[in-house]
Design a protein that fits this description.
The chain has about 140 residues and is α/β, with parallel strands linked by helices. The protein has a single domain, classed as 3-Layer(aba) Sandwich (Rossmann fold). It is built from 3 helices and 6 strands, in the order αβββαβαββ. Helix 2 links the parallel strand 3 and strand 4. The N and C termini lie far apart (about 30 Å).
Length: about 140
């Protein structure tokens, strides 16, 4: 098993471009090298404290304990009207607190991806299933 992919030790694996929906205009959790939108927030800018102000934001957050904070922020931005829609690439961990608090039963669109995602530059596919969640 590839423990680097399973852990949060490498938080910047790039999303395969074919998973990013068309029309994304803000990547809230990116670097200059892996951004999927013309506008993006780097770790130094911290997308969790910025207003998102977007039609369609994209978020592939670090897959550690902070996933729930990114989902909470997305709900806040959509509910406030600062963001129309947010799509996330997330591990399909339906047993987590964040899945039940922010995804399941919250008018989120969930698409479970077939197979395992191979992140750009990763030596092997992720050792977990993934999903796209749109708020």
């Amino acid at each position: 098993m590839n423990r680097v992919l399973f852990s949060a030790k490498r938080p910047d694996w790039a999303t395969p471009p074919e998973l990013v929906p068309p029309g994304v205009d803000l990547d809230v959790c990116a670097t200059a090298e892996n951004a999927k939108a013309p506008r993006f927030f780097t770790p130094e800018q911290d997308g969790l404290v910025q207003p998102w102000n977007a039609r369609h934001a994209w978020c592939n957050p670090p897959y550690g304990r902070g996933v729930g904070a990114w989902l909470a922020k997305g709900h806040e931005e959509v509910n406030s009207g600062r963001c129309v829609r947010v799509t996330y690439l997330l591990p399909a961990r339906t047993d987590t607190r964040w899945f039940h608090e922010y995804v399941w039963g919250h008018d989120a669109r969930v698409v479970f991806l077939r197979g395992r995602v191979r992140f750009v530059g990763a030596p092997a596919p992720a050792p977990f299933p993934s999903m796209l969640v749109t708020l």
